[in-house]
Amino acid sequence: MTFLNVVEIESALAGLASAYPTLAELIPLPFFTAEGRQSHALRIGSRQCYRRTVLLVSGTHAREWGGPDICINLVADLLEAWSLGTGLVYGGTSFSAAQLQQILDGVDLIVLPDLNPDGRHYSQTVYSMWRKNRNPASSGGIASRIGVDVNRNYDFLWNFPVAFAPGAVSAGTLASNDPASDLFHGTGPFSEAETQNVRWLFQKFPEISRFIDIHSYGGDILHPWGDDENQSTTPGMNFLSSFWNGQRGLQGDTYREFITTPDLGSLQAVGNVMKSAIAGVRGHSYTVAQSFFLPGWVTYPTSGASDDWAFSRYYADPSRQKVLGYVIEFNRTHTFFPDWAEMEKIILDIDAGLVAFCLDAAPKVRRYFHWCWWRKYLYRYFWRRLFPPEIWGPYGPWGQVPEVVKSIVKVAVVAIVVRAIARLLRRR
Questions:
Q1: Among 95, 134, 103, which Cα is nearest to 117's?
Q2: What percent of the chain has pLDDT over 70?
Q3: pTM for this one?
Q4: What does each C-alpha distance from 258 to 90, 245, 305 come to in angstroms?
Q5: Beta partners for residue 26, in sequence order
Q6: What tens digit of pLDDT does each residue of 275-284 get?
């Protein structure tokens, strides 16, 4: 066996939807690629109300062949295990039938295995190292200038020459205005069918709360932010503020990207859940890191990347669902094309991490105590009128309540300790 091609991926999705009609739904995506291909996603789960939605995408970069195989194997494993009432075993990591049932009942899993089918086809048949899609719109008829880097085309600091410091731009990781570059970011945010399809899924399923873009290579689990160092003390220092244009992307200077302390803790904790499951398979230790500090680089500033965009949507508009966004860089052997025997082991590694990711996302409570019920019956009529998004979002006063409470508690603890020491000194 070897890596699936574009036709085989689409056939596998259709076959799984047909074989498990009560658990799987084939979703045709509305935006066709430059070469006229239509991608599909697969939505699996029991479709109950009290659920969380997880979105996985892969195949963004054409030469990273293994991602679609990881996704197809994952959904096939889950559907078969659910139908048979069994658990799953990936090397030394296992999941019981009860745990898989918890995922089935509590998670809508949407999987888009082949985000960039044009690029994949070209990589597998013409030039293996091809990275971009195959959109010729900016090429001027020159073959070497065809294509857009799909993972620089999302609407997060897309206009990198304006948003970032000149030193960060010259680092060569952000993006490029040159169509001949592997990092060409397109003519505008979401100019490409591939990113439009991802945006459409977020619009179609606004309850998506977790997102992973599966890439190769490195052996890393990456989380926001990718544009600069993180900080949790200055809300006004953020990607939305034009005041900080020209200053992003450098380590050790004034600018750092705002993230709330609870959000950073959640991103790291969930990343470690995946890390543990992956390590259990055969002992491979993946690194959980902020995207800006991609392991192996001093810094790796990025613009227009999928995980940052997914996470930023809530920060830009707190009425949206908060999404924990990640990139997994599979394959620690540092090659885009591992031999198939190694790829089979990688599939076990990453699928174990993804099942753990879904299990962690599954709600622990149901019905009247679950967010779905409250959102349906109370949130729309009461909460949003009392606390509109502009004041309870991450940059508003209510978003800072946890930090204020924490500072008050610290002051109180210090005061108690000081009083206790004073009493002891007086007794002496």
A1: 134
A2: 89
A3: 0.86
A4: 37, 15, 17
A5: 42
A6: 999 999 999 9
Cα gap 407→412, rounded to integer Å? 9
Task: Look up the domain containing 409 and give its range.
Answer: 397-427
> What is the C-alpha separation between 65 and 70, in angstroms, rounded?
10
Instruction: Please check whether residue 251 is in contact with residue 229, taking contact to mean a CB–CB distance below 8 angstroms.
Output: yes
Alpha-carbon distance of 357 to 326, in angstroms, equals 11
Assess if residue 169 is contained within a domain. yes
Helices H / strands E in the chain, number of each? 14, 12
Q: CATH code at 316? A: 3.40.630.10
Residue closest to 184 by CA, chosen among 137, 217, 226: 137
- On whether both 10 and 92 belong to a single domain, the answer is yes
Pair (273, 325) in one structural domain: yes
Q: Quote the strand ranges of 21-150, DSSP E.
A: 24-28, 40-44, 52-58, 88-90, 93-95, 107-112
> Measured between alpha carbons, how far is 44 from 37 in angstroms, rounded to an integer?
23
In a domain, 383, yes or no: no
Beta-carbon count within 10 A of 232 CB = 17
Q: Which two tokens stand for residue 287?
A: 């690194």
